[in-house]
């Protein structure tokens, strides 16, 4: 099947923009169709294990992450394959819309494939701390076919003062989650089967925090 590189219908971008402007987060099942999601899953699955970095090593080390709080394995998307190019093009479209409508000043987007093997987790964390990071909007896109509740691996999203999660998200293929990086603590519960995703961040240009980020 030919890869769908056509721009996504702008209505989905409208919905995401409204969600970011309003509650600051949204969950969008069917952001990509099954064929495009499967193309990304195959692209990720074709990478040899040695290209995956255990969490807490490499770029993330400048942050607060280490294997006590996360155990997933990641690989940055570099746009070297058609499915990656299509995904990055969609996110560039979203970036443009967020900037045009909400004046967010987003300058770029970085994202990585992440694989959580059985039992892997990511404990409760914030993706960005005010004044210490240039990450503004987090996106998580899931690549898993036929995810069942019994498989675990839910993403729990909390409000600032809430002990109970605001949302429990099943990592079903095609679903996109979007939220303001500084506002929503979240965690990934251990899964009972491999769990694949693309986690990404829209960033602003902020020389102070990029210097700190190393
Ligand atoms: O995979 C998910 O559901 C969330 C991942 C996450 O929180 C992160 O990579 O910062
Ligand atoms: Fe996160």
From TrEMBL:
Its cofactor is L-ascorbate. The keyword Membrane does not apply. InterPro entries: HIF_prolyl_hydroxylases, Oxoglu/Fe-dep_dioxygenase_dom, Pro_4_hyd_alph, Pro_4_hyd_alph_FE2OG_OXY. It holds the Pfam family 2OG-FeII_Oxy_3. One of its GO terms (biological process) is cellular response to hypoxia. Residues 107-204 form the Fe2OG dioxygenase domain. It comes from the Bacteria. Keywords: Dioxygenase, Iron, Metal-binding, Oxidoreductase, Vitamin C. GO terms for molecular function: ferrous iron binding; L-ascorbic acid binding; peptidyl-proline dioxygenase activity. Gene3D superfamilies: q2cbj1_9rhob like domain (2.60.120.620). This is 2OG-Fe(II) oxygenase. It comes from Oceanimonas pelagia.
């Amino acid at each position: 099947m030919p890869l769908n590189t056509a721009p996504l219908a702008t209505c989905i971008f409208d919905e995401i923009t409204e969600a970011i402007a309003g509650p600051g987060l949204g969950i969008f099942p069917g952001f990509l169709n099954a064929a495009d999601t499967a193309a990304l899953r195959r692209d990720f699955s074709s990478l040899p294990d040695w290209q995956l970095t255990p969490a807490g090593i490499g770029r993330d080390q400048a942050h607060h992450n280490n294997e006590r709080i996360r155990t997933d394995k990641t690989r940055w998307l570099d746009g070297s394959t058609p499915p990656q190019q299509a995904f990055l093009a969609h996110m560039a479209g979203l970036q443009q819309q967020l900037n045009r409508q909400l004046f967010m000043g987003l300058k770029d987007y970085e994202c990585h494939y992440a694989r959580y093997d059985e039992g892997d987790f990511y404990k409760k964390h914030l993706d960005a701390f005010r004044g210490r990071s240039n990450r503004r909007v987090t996106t998580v896109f899931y690549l898993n076919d036929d995810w069942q509740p019994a498989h675990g691996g839910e993403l729990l999203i909390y409000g600032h003062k809430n002990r109970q999660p605001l949302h429990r998200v099943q990592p079903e293929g095609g679903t996109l989650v979007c939220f303001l990086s500084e506002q929503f603590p979240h965690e990934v519960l251990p899964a009972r089967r491999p769990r694949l995703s693309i986690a990404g961040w829209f960033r602003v240009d902020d020389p102070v925090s990029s210097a700190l980020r190393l």
